[in-house]
Amino acid sequence: MVLEKLTLRVVSPAGQDLSFFGTVIFSLETEGLPKKEIARRSGFPAGQTSVDFTVVPDDLKAYLLAKQATLVTDLMSSKQPNQDTTLELSATFDVDVAVENLL
User: Fold this and answer.
1) What are the domain boundaries of the chain?
2) Helix, strand, coil content of the chain in percent (nearest 5)
3) Whole-angstrom Cα distance, residue 56 to residue 97?
4) Predicted confidence (pLDDT) per residue in 58-100, tens digit
Protein backbone atom coordinates (compact mmCIF):
# COMPACT_ATOMS: atom_id res chain seq x y z
CA MET A 1 0.00 0.00 0.00
CA VAL A 2 1.64 3.14 -1.26
CA LEU A 3 0.34 6.70 -1.07
CA GLU A 4 0.16 8.01 -4.64
CA LYS A 5 -1.44 11.42 -4.15
CA LEU A 6 -2.38 13.71 -1.26
CA THR A 7 -4.40 16.86 -1.92
CA LEU A 8 -5.48 19.61 0.48
CA ARG A 9 -8.24 22.03 -0.52
CA VAL A 10 -10.27 24.81 1.04
CA VAL A 11 -13.94 23.92 1.53
CA SER A 12 -14.99 27.21 3.12
CA PRO A 13 -15.13 30.16 3.30
CA ALA A 14 -15.31 31.12 -0.35
CA GLY A 15 -12.27 33.11 -1.43
CA GLN A 16 -9.96 31.72 1.26
CA ASP A 17 -6.63 30.45 -0.07
CA LEU A 18 -3.89 28.34 1.54
CA SER A 19 -1.20 31.05 1.70
CA PHE A 20 -1.27 31.06 5.52
CA PHE A 21 0.66 27.78 5.51
CA GLY A 22 4.46 27.66 5.54
CA THR A 23 5.57 24.01 5.60
CA VAL A 24 3.14 21.16 6.25
CA ILE A 25 4.28 17.59 6.94
CA PHE A 26 1.92 14.63 7.30
CA SER A 27 3.10 11.49 9.12
CA LEU A 28 1.57 8.24 10.38
CA GLU A 29 2.05 6.85 13.88
CA THR A 30 1.04 3.50 15.31
CA GLU A 31 2.12 1.46 18.31
CA GLY A 32 5.33 -0.50 17.80
CA LEU A 33 6.43 1.35 14.65
CA PRO A 34 8.42 4.56 14.20
CA LYS A 35 6.68 7.76 13.11
CA LYS A 36 6.70 7.72 9.27
CA GLU A 37 6.52 10.84 7.11
CA ILE A 38 4.14 10.29 4.21
CA ALA A 39 3.91 13.71 2.51
CA ARG A 40 5.13 17.30 2.73
CA ARG A 41 4.77 20.67 1.08
CA SER A 42 6.48 24.03 1.45
CA GLY A 43 5.14 27.12 -0.24
CA PHE A 44 1.45 27.79 -0.68
CA PRO A 45 1.01 30.56 -3.26
CA ALA A 46 -1.57 33.28 -2.69
CA GLY A 47 -4.84 32.57 -4.48
CA GLN A 48 -4.34 28.79 -4.54
CA THR A 49 -7.25 26.93 -2.92
CA SER A 50 -6.06 23.38 -3.67
CA VAL A 51 -2.55 21.90 -3.58
CA ASP A 52 -0.92 18.52 -4.06
CA PHE A 53 1.80 17.35 -1.69
CA THR A 54 5.06 15.60 -2.47
CA VAL A 55 4.46 12.05 -1.25
CA VAL A 56 6.97 9.55 0.14
CA PRO A 57 6.59 6.37 -1.94
CA ASP A 58 7.13 3.91 0.95
CA ASP A 59 5.04 0.83 1.73
CA LEU A 60 2.48 1.85 4.40
CA LYS A 61 0.76 -1.52 4.81
CA ALA A 62 1.82 -2.04 8.44
CA TYR A 63 0.49 1.41 9.39
CA LEU A 64 -2.77 1.18 7.48
CA LEU A 65 -3.61 -2.31 8.74
CA ALA A 66 -2.73 -1.56 12.36
CA LYS A 67 -5.50 -1.75 14.94
CA GLN A 68 -5.16 2.01 15.45
CA ALA A 69 -3.09 4.63 13.64
CA THR A 70 -2.85 8.39 13.92
CA LEU A 71 -2.34 10.91 11.11
CA VAL A 72 -0.04 13.60 12.51
CA THR A 73 0.24 17.10 11.03
CA ASP A 74 3.34 19.19 11.70
CA LEU A 75 3.12 22.88 10.76
CA MET A 76 6.20 25.10 10.48
CA SER A 77 6.26 28.81 9.70
CA SER A 78 2.49 28.77 9.33
CA LYS A 79 0.14 31.56 10.39
CA GLN A 80 -3.43 31.43 11.56
CA PRO A 81 -5.92 32.37 8.81
CA ASN A 82 -7.97 35.54 9.33
CA GLN A 83 -11.17 33.50 9.62
CA ASP A 84 -12.25 29.96 10.49
CA THR A 85 -11.35 27.77 7.53
CA THR A 86 -12.61 24.29 6.69
CA LEU A 87 -10.17 22.08 4.78
CA GLU A 88 -10.53 18.74 3.02
CA LEU A 89 -7.68 16.25 2.73
CA SER A 90 -7.98 13.53 0.10
CA ALA A 91 -5.61 10.63 -0.46
CA THR A 92 -5.15 8.10 -3.25
CA PHE A 93 -3.43 4.80 -2.48
CA ASP A 94 -2.03 2.08 -4.72
CA VAL A 95 -3.20 -1.19 -3.14
CA ASP A 96 -2.27 -4.72 -4.21
CA VAL A 97 -5.24 -7.06 -3.94
CA ALA A 98 -5.16 -10.82 -4.34
CA VAL A 99 -8.42 -12.25 -5.68
CA GLU A 100 -9.00 -15.96 -5.22
CA ASN A 101 -11.37 -18.05 -7.26
CA LEU A 102 -14.32 -18.74 -4.97
CA LEU A 103 -16.11 -21.19 -7.28
Assistant:
1) 2-91
2) 5, 50, 45
3) 21
4) 999 999 999 999 999 999 998 999 899 999 999 999 988 777 7
